[in-house]
């Protein structure tokens, strides 16, 4: 027993504080906490006061009891927290993390065997169980047991044979199993199969694999079948071990289907061996070795089942992404076609309006409807075609057609307000601003006033809105100086983006009582970025009828600008902000 | 009088559709088309104005909000012969009325709470349909469902798919807006009476459609129309023709070409109805059991004899209808004849199923 010396400092409280801090910082990743426990267990093993250690003359000591109490307390808390949040999965397939847990369990077992103050291992096991999303921990543990068995039998073997005569096949088999856990240290440099053909092992890939999926995907499981009875006294019939790599070729051109086909074949093959062992148990008369082989089979089948699951997930993900890409491609193409076809509708309507002046209103409405469709598809179309280079070009080369960002915002506002007078296409919002109870005379007067004001300045528009619709605040900073050319359609594209955002804000502010309605548009310089912030009053209970096109267009444009729209909601306000590189500034 | 419920939230941009769909009933009151044209030319219109303009037409109810649609469905469901539902009714907010809607649903024993109602956001029609078919299974045939995208409608709604799977709703009643299939609704509205009759006599219509043809269905519908209008002569004429068509179809499918009930004029065979009714069918039934019993036999002979007495004969398919004498027919007789032909058709269906080779 190591005795405390006078000049040794008690570090227990420091260690406990650090442990608690690690627990509080689990945001850094849950493994950080377990890693710290492992480090401290090692440390306490070395410097624990009641532990028989050779470092008695170390400058500090740690009292195991309070340390263990703290570990148990934190494990308990961790478990409860995990139970409360059932989506919290930590064993996601990262090999190192699984090994860390496995090491920790082993370390704590050893601790408990030696120490009077026991760590509650049940707590750690419960945590692992709760977090082991795909049963990976148990698969890795089982694989490790298989490897450990091989190692122990290897020692026996080495005792029996001259090391220089060590069978290449034996070494290859041992290496193969080690590689299953990502450990290439035991992999023989020139691995071979029993028939002296080369065993293909990509050791670099094995060493670099980070996840179980990455690692296990590297193996042909036929190889394991070849060595299935290795290190046991059982000799399986050759027909069960025959290498099938070449015969496993699948005609299917889809790589995932081919992979899955092979995996299912592997499982079938292992099942055949298992059946053989079960059926010939009496003749073989070696329960121990039968159990060893069955354990290997069960472990490998678990691994292959995991691979099947992950392969299918990956296949689905790739298919989903491909579908999404295809959808976008079709959408972009389709919107272009629709736009062209709409022209074939609009032009005859315009002619018809000339020929039938008595039907002018009806025809105008039809033209307006067709134009609305055109605007929607135009927005989709352009949002798919934009590139940052185009935008940069138009910013650097503003031509005569250029617009300032400020103009775009005011124009978007005009567009949005005008639509609020359109009872045919936007009745729900229009009715909120100008209800049916408002008589036609008053309505006509307001509309006339808007017609007069709409072409005016921002302050005239704001005065009108204040009087009839909502309180408007504009803070457009120096954006009046930022010109965008339209040679590559950037001006129109940005205008569409602003329109989508501002139109949404105007529409949804309509559901709030007049006195509380407000719209705040800010475009300010924010370090090297420009920040557009549109804030509107809204009723959180209102559920919009939406096609989702607006969102798609905003997201596509934002993507090009290298940002994502950030949406924040309070009980009364809806806020969308876009912060993108200020292309107009030399430091932007 | 047939009654229709039209549920559409985007009324203001659909005046042309209303005129197209409902012209046959709206034109009965000249004020309505005129008012709709005026609204179409107006630059300020409200859904409520359109409903107001159509109000003189008592055959048509219009709802433009989800709560109003639900109210009409719950209170008036037993009156409607046709309901046209636009699937997405989310244009007008209804959050404030959720509680009332839930109470109404609960009152009729439908287990909904606010959360469950909100699950139907942007597919409110699904809920209406679900409520309707629970209230009355016959709505399966009376509801037409309008949606922007037919395949999306089914993909996005397990409830709708389930209703179709359990035969509570018909997939062919889901119509894509603006598609040529919309004409189906115009056609129904052009002859609402026919649509109602086919729904009332659904089994008979289906049997005739399956084992005879659409013309026979129309003949049956016309027969009912004449019955409703007390046009006995036309009724008895259609009745006799229908009976003969049924008997001929059965006779051909019995395959007894040399039987006594066939009379040959050169290579042309003519069915002898009376011997066929009295002996041919009976004998065949004794051997092969085609469900031909005294009720059906008497119904056939009754229709056959009475129509003959009214001077409608098998050779008189082109007979001058004016020559038909129906003086002896009382309303009781006509009622009986109608019931009898309905029985005969009910027998005809399973009989044909048994005679036709199994697929």
List keywords for this structure.
heterodimer; A: 588 residues; alpha/beta; Heat Shock Protein 90; 3 domains; 5-stranded mixed β-sheet; two-stranded parallel sheet; 22 helices; 9 strands; 7% strand; elongated; B: 359 residues; Rossmann fold; 2 domains; 5-stranded parallel β-sheet; two-stranded antiparallel sheet; 18 helices
Shape of chain B: elongated
Which residue ranges of chain B are poorly predicted, with pLDDT under 50 across at least 5 consecutive positions? Answer: none
Radius of gyration of chain B, whole Å:
25 Å
Q: Report strand % of chain B.
A: 5-15%
The name of the CATH superfamily of the largest domain in chain B reads Response regulator
Quick one: how many beta strands of chain B? 7
- The helix/strand class of chain A is alpha/beta
Helix/strand class of chain B? alpha/beta
Class of the largest domain in chain B, according to the CATH hierarchy?
Alpha Beta
How many separate domains make up the residues of chain B? 2
């Amino acid at each position: 027993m190591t005795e405390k010396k006078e000049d040794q400092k008690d570090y227990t409280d420091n260690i406990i504080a650090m442990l608690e801090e690690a627990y509080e910082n689990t945001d850094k990743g849950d493994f950080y906490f377990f890693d710290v426990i492992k480090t401290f267990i090692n440390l306490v093993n070395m410097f624990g006061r009641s532990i028989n250690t050779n470092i008695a003359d170390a400058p500090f000591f740690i009292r195991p009891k309070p340390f263990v109490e703290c570990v148990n307390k934190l494990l308990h808390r961790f478990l409860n927290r995990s139970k409360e949040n059932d989506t919290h999965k930590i064993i996601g397939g990262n090999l190192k993390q699984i090994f860390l847990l496995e090491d920790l369990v082993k370390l704590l077992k050893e601790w408990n065997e030696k120490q009077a103050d026991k760590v509650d291992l049940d707590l750690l096991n419960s945590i692992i169980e709760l977090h082991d999303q795909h049963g990976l921990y148990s698969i890795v543990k089982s694989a490790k047991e298989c490897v450990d068995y091989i190692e122990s039998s290897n020692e026996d073997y080495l005792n029996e044979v001259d090391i220089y005569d060590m069978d290449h096949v034996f070494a290859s088999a041992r290496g193969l199993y080690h590689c299953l856990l990502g450990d290439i240290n035991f992999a023989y440099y020139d691995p071979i199969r029993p028939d002296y053909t080369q065993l293909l092992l990509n050791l670099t890939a094995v060493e670099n694999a980070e996840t179980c999926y990455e690692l296990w995907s590297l193996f042909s499981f036929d190889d394991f079948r070849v060595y299935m009875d290795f290190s046991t006294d059982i000799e399986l019939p050759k027909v069960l071990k025959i290498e099938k790599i070449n015969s496993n070729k699948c005609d299917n051109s889809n790589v995932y289907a081919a992979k899955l086909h092979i995996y299912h074949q592997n499982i079938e093959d292992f099942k055949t061996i298992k059946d053989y062992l079960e059926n010939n148990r009496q003749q073989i008369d070696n329960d121990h070795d039968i159990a060893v082989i069955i354990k290997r089979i069960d472990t490998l089948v678990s691994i292959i089942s995991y691979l099947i699951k992950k392969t299918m997930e990956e296949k689905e993900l790739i298919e989903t992404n491909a579908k999404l890409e295809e959808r976008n491609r079709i959408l972009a193409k389709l919107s272009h076609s629709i736009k062209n076809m709409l022209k074939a509708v609009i032009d005859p309507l315009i002619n018809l309006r000339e020929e039938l002046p008595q039907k002018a209103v009806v025809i105008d409405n039809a033209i307006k409807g067709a134009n609305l469709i055109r605007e929607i598809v135009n927005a989709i179309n352009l949002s798919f075609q934009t590139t940052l280079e185009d935008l940069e070009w138009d910013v650097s080369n503003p031509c005569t057609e250029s617009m300032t960002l400020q103009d775009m915002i005011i124009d978007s506002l005009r567009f949005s307000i005008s639509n609020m007078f359109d009872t045919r296409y936007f009745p729900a919002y229009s009715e909120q601003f100008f209800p049916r109870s408002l008589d036609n005379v008053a309505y006509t007067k307001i509309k006339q006033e808007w017609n007069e004001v709409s072409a005016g300045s921002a302050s005239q528009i704001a005065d009108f809105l204040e009087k009839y619709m909502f309180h408007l605040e504009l803070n457009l900073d120096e954006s009046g100086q930022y010109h965008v050319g339209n040679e590559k359609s950037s001006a129109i594209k940005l205008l569409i983006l602003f329109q989508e955002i501002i139109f949404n804000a105007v529409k949804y502010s309509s559901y709030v009582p007049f006195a509380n309605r407000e719209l705040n548009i800010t475009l300010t310089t924010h370090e090297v970025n420009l920040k557009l912030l549109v804030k509107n009053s809204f009723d959180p209970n209102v559920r919009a009828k939406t096609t989702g096109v607006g969102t798609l267009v905003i997201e596509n444009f934002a993507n090009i600008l290298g940002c994502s729209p950030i949406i924040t909601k309070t009980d009364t306000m809806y806020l969308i902000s876009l912060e993108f590189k200020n292309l107009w500034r030399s430091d932007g | 009088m047939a009654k229709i419920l039209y549920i559409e939230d985007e009324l203001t941009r659909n005046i042309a559709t209303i005129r197209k769909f409902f012209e046959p009933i709206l034109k009965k009151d000249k004020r309505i088309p005129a008012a709709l044209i005026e609204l179409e030319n107006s630059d300020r219109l409200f859904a409520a104005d359109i409903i107001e303009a159509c109000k003189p037409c008592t055959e048509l109810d219009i709802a433009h909000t989800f709560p109003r649609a639900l109210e009409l469905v719950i209170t008036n469901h037993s009156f409607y012969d046709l309901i046209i539902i636009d699937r997405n009714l989310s244009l007008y907010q209804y959050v404030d009325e959720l509680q009332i809607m839930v109470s109404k649903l609960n009152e009729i024993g439908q287990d909904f709470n606010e959360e469950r109602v909100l699950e139907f956001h942007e597919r409110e029609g699904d809920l209406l349909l679900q409520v309707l078919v629970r209230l009355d299974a016959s709505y399966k045939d009376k509801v037409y469902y309008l949606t922007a995208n037919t395949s999306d409608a089914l993909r996005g709604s397990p409830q709708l798919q389930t209703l179709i799977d359990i035969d509570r709703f018909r997939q062919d009643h889901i119509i894509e807006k603006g598609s040529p299939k919309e004409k189906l609704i115009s056609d129904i509205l052009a002859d609402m009476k026919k649509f109602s009759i086919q729904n009332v006599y659904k089994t008979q219509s289906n049997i005739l459609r399956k084992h005879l043809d659409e013309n026979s269905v129309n003949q049956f519908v016309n027969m009912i129309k004449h019955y409703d209008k007390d046009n006995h002569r036309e009724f008895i004429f259609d009745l006799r023709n229908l009976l003969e068509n049924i008997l001929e179809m059965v006779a051909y499918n019995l395959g007894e070409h040399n039987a006594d009930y066939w009379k040959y004029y050169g290579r042309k065979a003519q069915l002898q109805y009376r011997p066929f009714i009295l002996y041919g069918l009976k004998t065949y039934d004794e051997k092969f059991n085609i469900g031909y019993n005294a009720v059906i036999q008497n119904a056939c002979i009754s229709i056959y004899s009475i129509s003959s007495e009214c001077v409608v004969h098998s050779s008189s398919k082109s007979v001058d209808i004016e020559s038909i004498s129906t003086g002896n027919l009382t309303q009781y007789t006509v009622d009986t004849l109608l019931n009898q032909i309905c029985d005969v058709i009910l027998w005809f269906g399973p009989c044909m199923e048994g005679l036709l080779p199994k697929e």
